[in-house]
Design a protein that fits this description.
The longest helix is centred in the first third of the chain and has 15 residues. About 40% of the residues lie in helices and about 15% in strands. The chain is globular and about 50 Å long. β6, α8 and β7 form a beta-alpha-beta unit. Strands 1, 2, 3, 4, 5, 6, 7, 8, 9 and 10 form a 10-stranded parallel β-sheet that branches. It is of the alpha/beta class and about 325 residues long. The chain has one domain: Aldolase class I (TIM Barrel, Alpha-Beta Barrel). α3 runs parallel beside α4 and α5 packs across α7. It has 12 helices and 10 strands. The structure holds S-adenosylmethionine, 6-(5-methyl-2-OXO-imidazolidin-4-yl)-hexanoic acid (DTB) and iron/sulfur cluster. 6-(5-methyl-2-OXO-imidazolidin-4-yl)-hexanoic acid binds next to β2 and β7. Iron/sulfur cluster (SF4) binds next to loops. Keywords: 2Fe-2S, 4Fe-4S, Biotin biosynthesis, Iron, Iron-sulfur, Metal-binding, S-adenosyl-L-methionine, Transferase. Belongs to the radical SAM superfamily. Biotin synthase family. Homodimer.
Amino acid sequence: MNTRHDWTREEITNLYNLPFLDLVFEAQRIHRENFPANTIQVSTLLSIKTGKCPEDCKYCSQSVHYDSKLEAEKRIAISKVIEEAKLALAQGSSRFCMGAAWRNPHERDMPYVLEMVKEVKALGLETCMTLGMLNQSQAERLKDAGLDYYNHNLDTSREYYSHIISTRTFDDRLDTLEHVRNAGMKICSGGILGLGETQNDRIGLLYELATLAIHPESVPINMLVPIEGTPLENIEKLDVIEWIRTIAVARIIMPKSYIRLSAGRESLSDSDQALAFMAGANSFFSGEKLLTTPNIGEGKDKILLRKLDLKVEKPKLTIHELSINAMEV
Ligand code: SAM
Ligand code: DTB
Ligand code: SF4
């Protein structure tokens, strides 16, 4: 079946409301048409600049607008990043994602991030960054340095966006995604569930992602990790079945994209996660920590992968790319 980009909200709503087992069954069927069964891609995250972010995302520990008790940290040394990247590689990660709490990178930050991309890529890892908004020239320089993916989430529906973030617009997000695409990088873009949004907002988010001219190659589905001191600290937890439905619909309407279990796995049981894999999720973040919040940890993940007989996908860099990288170091 061809990948479609003309999904209507009505079609997506109908999928979302299928009997649950029909929905999961269909998602797994489509998954197996497009990906090897029982195989998971593993990424590792590192915060390269933490806290004091000028944006006001109501869910985030790093926003300067809320008193989350987070300890801020300036740009960390590139040597430290490389140490962490080597560790991630040794533990089976194929992609290393570096995140900074910026509204956008300043020009003075560019030499730092460009050098970091070059050095991480040279290790044989796929590279990903999430640095806030990018202009066209920044996107192109990151691509030239060897950045494979840029993460920039739409987070929620267009209608609900301004209830969650007021310091930028939904269209600002789309503009950055366009710059990333024009530069020829792959896109990692998804959302966050459990923000007090309605089912219709989750459908709206899926609609925006699935009607992009090219689907994001990677679609992270975060479940809110409630952070003390933020406006969403006490929001009611989303029913896990809604999370699974969102994953299954994402798999069906973006059949060739990796669907990633991102934040919030710590609050989910092994069987919740197994059901999410059944619904077509095929990627997750490993490690003890995401950016600022705890994650499941490598040990427990290894046990889960073993229990479910899931294989870990190897990095996709070719021998040719690897030898070029090695020569450039
Ligand atoms: N500052 C950059 C930006 O916003 O694009 C990158 C980092 S930001 C932390 C990346 C994503 O993490 C957000 O878009 C959101 O989906 C997710 N996220 C942040 N805080 C979260 C939380 N408390 N629970 C779940 N997901 C969260
Ligand atoms: C994404 O969608 N989720 C990751 C990654 N992209 C950068 C970040 C999750 C952050 C969770 C909250 C924290 O650790 O601060
Ligand atoms: Fe800043 Fe990103 Fe957190 Fe928003 S989600 S406050 S942009 S670090």
